UniProtKB/TrEMBL annotation:
GO terms for molecular function: hydrolase activity. It comes from Rufibacter quisquiliarum. Residues 90-102 have a biased composition (Basic and acidic residues). Keywords: Hydrolase. Residues 90-109 are annotated as: Disordered. Pfam families: MazG. This is NTP pyrophosphatase (Non-canonical NTP hydrolase). Residues 23-100 form the NTP pyrophosphohydrolase MazG-like domain.
Amino acid sequence: MTLEQAQQAVDTWIKDVGVRYFSELTNLAILTEEVGEVARIIARRYGDQSFKKSDEEVDLATEMADVLFVLIALANQTGVNLTEAFQKGLEKRTARDKDRHQNNPKLKG
């Protein structure tokens, strides 16, 4: 699925199942909540915290997909073409960081 197809799929789902888009501020709050759920899993799986019983069955991929869904919804309702934005972001990072990471001794070996 391309980003364009994902944007269309989210738009269709929201209109057919979700009735309408939540406000941008509500979606921002939901996005923050979903990112927090990803952070909780990573802190426990890869960090120093231990899982609570209620967190043991959570799935990182599912939580990441929830973040992506809400981010796409925000892009749709604010008129952002994610394909174009992502490509511009890659070009910006390439121009800015092409030598920076190659010359970083912390990343070698």
